[in-house]
Give the backbone structure.
Amino acid sequence: ADDLTLQLKWVTQAQFGGYYVAKDKGFYEEEGLNVTIKPGGPDIAPVQVLAGGGADVTVEWMPAALAAREKGLPIVNIAQPFKKSGMMLTCLKESGVADPKTDFKGKTLGVWFSGNEYPFLSWMNHLGLKTDGSPDGVTVLKQGFNVDPLLQKQAACISTMTYNEYWQVIDAGIKPKELVTFKYDDQGVATLEDGLYVLEEKLNDPAMADKLTRFVRASMKGWKYAEEHPAEAAEIVLENDETGAQTIEHQTRMAGEIAKLTAGSTGALDEADFKRTVETLLSGGSDPVISKAPEGAWTHAISDKALN
Amino acid sequence: MKHALPVLTVLCAIILGWYVAAVALNAPWARDQAARAGTSLTMPALIRATMTQERPVLPAPHQVAKGVWDGVAGQKITSKRSLVWHAGVTLSATLAGFAIGSLAGILLAVGIVHSRVMDLSVMPWAIASQTVPILAIAPMVIVVFASAGVTGLVPKAMIAAWLSFFPVLVGMVKGLRTPDRMQMDLMHSWNASRAQAFWRLRLPSAMPYLFASLKVAVAAALVGTIVGELPAGATAGLGARLLSGSYYGQTIQIWAALFAAAALAAVLVMVISGIERVTLKRMGLAR
Amino acid sequence: MTAALPLIAVWLGAFGLNTWLARYRGPIPSALVPLIFGATILILWEMACRSFAIPAVILPAPSQIWTAFGANLPLLWGDFVQTILKGALSGWLIGAAAAVATAIAIDRSPFLQRGLLPIGNFVAALPIVGIAPILVMWFGFDWQSKAAVVVVMVFFPILVNMVAGLKATDALARDQIATWGASYTQALLKLRLPAAMPFLFNGLKITTTLALIGAIVAEFFGSPTRGMGFRISTAVGQLNMPLVWAEILVAALAGTAFYGIVALIERRVTFWHPSQRQ
Amino acid sequence: MSVIEAQGVSLTFQTADGPVHALKDVDLTIGKGEFVSFIGPSGCGKTTFLRTIAALETPTAGRIGVNGLSADEARRARAYGYVFQAPGLYPWRTISGNISLPLEIMGFSKTDRAKRIARVLDMVELSGFGGKFPWQLSGGMQQRASIARALAFDADILLMDEPFGALDEIVRDRLNAALLELWAKTGKTIGFVTHSIPEAVYLSTKIVVMSPRPGRITRIIESTLPRERPLEIRDTPEFIRIAQEVREGLREGHSYD
Amino acid sequence: MSVIEAQGVSLTFQTADGPVHALKDVDLTIGKGEFVSFIGPSGCGKTTFLRTIAALETPTAGRIGVNGLSADEARRARAYGYVFQAPGLYPWRTISGNISLPLEIMGFSKTDRAKRIARVLDMVELSGFGGKFPWQLSGGMQQRASIARALAFDADILLMDEPFGALDEIVRDRLNAALLELWAKTGKTIGFVTHSIPEAVYLSTKIVVMSPRPGRITRIIESTLPRERPLEIRDTPEFIRIAQEVREGLREGHSYD
Ligand SMILES: Nc1ncnc2c1ncn2[C@@H]1O[C@H](COP(=O)(O)OP(=O)(O)OP(=O)(O)O)[C@@H](O)[C@H]1O
Ligand SMILES: Nc1ncnc2c1ncn2[C@@H]1O[C@H](COP(=O)(O)OP(=O)(O)OP(=O)(O)O)[C@@H](O)[C@H]1O
Ligand SMILES: Cc1ncc(C[n+]2csc(CCO)c2C)c(N)n1
Ligand SMILES: [Mg+2]
Ligand SMILES: [Mg+2]
């Protein structure tokens, strides 16, 4: 079997259920692949691992991928299992945020950095709010790993994913009715998440291209299976979690939410989604994420072969 | 036995203070919850509420104790949920890193004491090396090692070694320079070679400094390993445990992992203290 | 392999030059030798980056780092103030004071010493990466929580050294002060504290660098949008490696200066110690 | 009136290879204003006995009374000026600083300290060396500095462990004379360890001869010399007779080896 | 045949409060097999001069030749056995271990070491104390252990800095005799610092009187006593005459103060 290494963006969880399902159910094996899945972490920059040769394929968000491309690291999107964005801003109702257009000013907002800040910055730019702490803007906190800033009331709003952090807030004992959420999708500033990326030069090697084709085909099979059997997917994820920290309840719920995001994706990148992401990023205010529309940042070469 | 009573006394005082702090720190959340539910809490109810939260700001001692107990005794040792298993993973990297680091520190110190070139050139850069924030370069170290095909224990051990060599270096340089003028002169008058003066004078006089540094270094190695475990893909080890606990806001799990790590460090320090006592006694330095 | 040959040649050349220089005493060789050593490392680094075509996203060349350093001076200064001056320095001072005070306190009472030291060892060995998120939760996002992390981090090494130092007086000196009927405080002030100074400074020097690491690392667990740790983690996300290394350069410069100042004070305070006299 | 009273004092050190009986059943009474010399082969317990008087060692049996107090109470009442066998100057203080140290501890005023330091430095012939650090002085100079330190604060009881061992004959004679003068003027009680028989005879009102294994007192010789002692007294028959007696006592102690 | 030759040796220490002239223009020739004593007020440079001979200090002017080599070359050839003014035993080694140390360094075999240790311990009357640690011994015993250490490896040149200062008269007499015997048997060249005039006269073939500020040689007295010296020689008129001459030289040195 051909060896292949996949670098995840984050720790083992149902967010990456499709890949674990494909591995566990033998979909990769059927395609003659021996796939190693490497979990990520808060300070792993997946594209850096890719550049260093530590992995063949990586799961990454498109803003970070395009930024890397502009920095001279030629990486290419070969498939896009996630159709929708799961990012949102979750606020405590008591902090008085109801309408993004008027109420953010002067508030403290928790934001993820390490390449995940771009959608937020674009959004604030759309709203015309400064993020440098000046009085007529917002105060930005670099949010850590968890939802504490909201629970401790250190921030009015924090970044959450529909499938994960939001539920942690709920689990902490805050009722949904006490919360206000703003999905990036709804605000028109959504960017593509969790695509599969490889180094450009790899595509020139027919053998590698073939391997990637088989990988994408098996992975999508895994994703579609996970979409239909979220409970089973969650169990598979749990078995693969080496930290032993995950709980079945949390993962089952996450698998259900993830299914909503992958639904509607065949695995091929939708060019319209790509354009929207690029536009969002280009309008990143004084310090845009990317300065010009990227060329050749994606290809259908693999997904076409894999899925048709 | 001489130690049991004082330790217990201090322990009781700490636990008492901890409970008070837990009540104080967890009370706002309990009150908030009550307010959201539209009720208000009596004092006993409030205190009870602060003891049983699932995500307390500061978990009460018994909650942590239960967390540790579950992690240690509630699982098979080979289980991924067992703290013992995670501690074992961390310990192996810590020991490897500590061995590499303290050896490097000792060797560098020996070089510095004996060679003027090294004295002048190494020290400033050894200091500079320590100011490189490891958590920043830890992912890079991991990436670089991974690209060379080395994964698992070695990269973590390297980070541990990076942190632990410095205390040993500083302590040993000081210790090796401790012999006073007359002692050096004696060696000189016998025309002892540098090696002889080292083994028979410098090293024995450096022993107390060495052990003080080793105790610091072993704790540093543990920190290094845990740091190395954070970005290593959060797979196994106490660091991964801390991170995932932190990521899912499971305060009790964090504290349990934290105590496991601290216990590990304490055991390591105690082992070194033991070796120190025996060595110094056999050297006739402990009176 | 052939690409490595020039590197080896440069290394050997610089080593030879330094060995020759080190034979001369005086301030000029003492300053030149480390500089040549450092310059050699930088040249080797630059050469390695170029001849092996190491991608900048993995390891930028010194020239790129230097450019980034020059282009971001105001930014770097702001980060320096936030992390080093506010976070590390204040934390180090508080931590050192607390450690010395604790050492003295438990030194006086054998009961406390027996009771507190083992537990102190245990508590102080809590790894900072575990404590940092908790302290950020308690002390907020700004520099106060970073200082708290630093306090916890530097406390143990200084305490260990100080306790050892307080025990380090020789029997004759202790007997002497006993014959003068000195009170505990007098013996402490006049004999045991001075005798403990070489040990204390040992701890202080080790912890200068720990303080910097602590302050920077703590910012990974939540921070305002400035500070060296914040900048490093965001720049890594943007693959702006030259900026990352420019921050590391600032940390290295600050750390070396910090250490140097402490070493200088040590020289003045413990001038009498054999290790300072040669 | 007795100042120091030792009754049945024994002291045994436990070492890895068995107990060492440094003192065994030592009885001694020292009256106020007496000058008592201790003499004996090396290792016979002189230092140990002096240390026991100053409460630096605790006897394993027997007791020591000082002015009706226990030795330790007397120590805390600052009754002792002690010159140790080794100089033991603190390396971080200059010579003046070292002499000043006990004065600071006992709360002397700054001007008083300066006066006393000048006086004792002059007495041990070290004027001009006050600003030097210990490691910058010769062995004999360090020993003299340590004597100066013990004299500076005028304790009632002076205990001196071979203070003049490292000095040449001429300085030694001068310091002997100075010590006698100080003693005559102040009426201090002095315990003095020496290896020199003439020195012991010249200075003392009472000479205690000790002998090792176990450390004990073998002879106590009361001096019949007058209190007023010019240097020439060393040539009188009376002096020579006492010296001879001490020498015999010493020889007895050695015969045990 | 001259073994040690000092020509115009000067040594100045730079201290914070100005230079100290420890030695100034010292000329001295010591022949093979000579026993040379140095005597002088404390601080006059005796220790410094001995250290300079042993290449432990470098003179600021002048030169020292030893057997046609420089002092440092002689040191490297292990020509010196040095007894320091303070015992300087290593606290982590027992007495035997301390004596063994130079022997280990010089590569003596284990059985040879054991034999030599036993011999020198016996010579300084410390048999039975080999297993003790230094701090378990009295001051005089430590000093004797340090003498034993310097004797153990049979260096051609013995340099001894007040070796018997802490010993009582009787042991001192015995050790003096033992030293003379060793000297007669082995023909070593010995440099010996002492404060005792009789000791200097009794032991030496040449007595060097020094004087301080600046440290220099004021007199060199060649002894006319025979090489064979029973203890009773100390009562001969010849002995007393030489002692008187030394005393005068010493007094001169002191008159400068
Ligand atoms: N390391 C030093 N630094 C400065 N001055 C020194 C140093 N060593 C010795 N001296 C000075 O040099 C002079 C000679 O000292 P040295 O030790 O040779 O005297 P000495 O004749 O051996 O006296 P003693 O009989 O007391 O041992 C003294 O004035 C002393 O203060
Ligand atoms: N701390 C100790 N531990 C064990 N034995 C000791 C200790 N101190 C002294 N001794 C032993 O006690 C005995 C008496 O020692 P002490 O120092 O009183 O002798 P001393 O009469 O002062 O001799 P010296 O004239 O050589 O100074 C010696 O045999 C010595 O070995
Ligand atoms: C320090 C930190 N940085 C970034 C993220 C963002 N992030 C990376 S992957 C992922 C999916 C969530 O499950 C998210 C939100 C975070 N959470 N914590
Ligand atoms: Mg004694
Ligand atoms: Mg001397």
Observations:
- The helical segments of chain D are 46-53, 71-76, 95-105, 110-123, 139-151, 169-186, 197-203, 237-254.
